[in-house]
């Protein structure tokens, strides 16, 4: 049985090494990302072209393999400190079965987690965006109102001046009469 396993492992290793050995050491490998409208480049002699075609919407985005990472380096320092704060917690308010009253902290931790999720929810982000747009609109409302007030006052002045000119002008039929016909 052991010999059978060993020979199977050797065969698997040889099968995996076969394609690598088939490539010559002087071959150039050109790995290209093309988008739906782009063409893949033509391979030159002694060159292997590997072309990945993505949809046009991905052109200016961060590559998908770099977008999300659970790496500890991507964790914020505030979160790291918060995690360290609970290392070795036991006893009352610890949410730990060890020690008297350890269960009492579980409710508090559930509440903190719920508030944390709520603070980072998409709805909150939309709320912030709406609040920013509202603040931007309100920041220009005074200037807009002043400009509108100035325009209305100008129209009223022009109207009053026209009325005054009409009052000062002679009415039809007033003034010197034309000489009677002979």
Order of helices and strands: HEEHHHH
Poorly predicted regions are: 4-19
The portion of residues forming beta strands comes to 5-15%
Question: Which range best describes the helical content: under 10%, 10-25%, 25-40%, 40-55%, 55-70% or over 70%?
Answer: 40-55%
**What general form does the structure show?**
elongated
Structural class: mainly alpha
How many E strands? Answer: 2
Number of helices: 5
Mean pLDDT figure: 75
Rg, Cα atoms, Å: 41 Å
Q: Order of strands across the widest beta sheet?
A: 1-2
Head-to-tail CA distance between termini: 147 Å
- State the major sheet: 2 strands, parallel
Question: Can you offer a commentary on this structure?
Answer:
The protein is mainly alpha-helical and 182 residues long. Among the domains are: 23-60, no CATH class; 68-120, no CATH class. Helix content is 53%, strand content 9%. It is built from five helices and two strands; from the N terminus they run H-E-E-H-H-H-H. The protein has helices at 2-22, 64-67, 77-85, 104-119, 122-168; strands at residues 28-35, 47-54. Strands 1-2 form a two-stranded parallel sheet. It is elongated and about 125 Å long. Residues 4-19 have low confidence and may be disordered.
């Amino acid at each position: 049985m052991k010999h059978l396993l060993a020979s199977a492992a050797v065969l698997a290793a040889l099968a995996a090494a076969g394609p690598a050995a088939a490539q010559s050491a002087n071959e150039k490998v050109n790995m290209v990302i093309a988008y739906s409208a782009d063409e893949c480049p033509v391979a030159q002699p002694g060159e292997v072209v590997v072309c990945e075609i993505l949809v046009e919407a991905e052109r200016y985005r961060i590559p998908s393999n770099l977008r999300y990472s659970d790496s500890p380096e991507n964790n914020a320092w505030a979160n790291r400190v918060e995690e360290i704060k609970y290392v070795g917690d036991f006893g009352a308010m610890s949410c730990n079965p060890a020690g008297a009253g350890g269960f009492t902290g579980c409710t508090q931790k559930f509440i903190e987690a719920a508030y944390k999720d709520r603070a980072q929810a998409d709805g909150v982000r939309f709320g912030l965006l709406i609040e920013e747009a509202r603040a931007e609109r309100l920041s220009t409302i005074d200037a807009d109102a002043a400009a509108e007030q100035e325009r209305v006052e100008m129209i009223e002045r022009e109207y009053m001046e026209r009325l005054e000119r009409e009052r000062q002008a002679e009415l039809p039929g007033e003034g010197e009469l034309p000489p009677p016909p002979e």
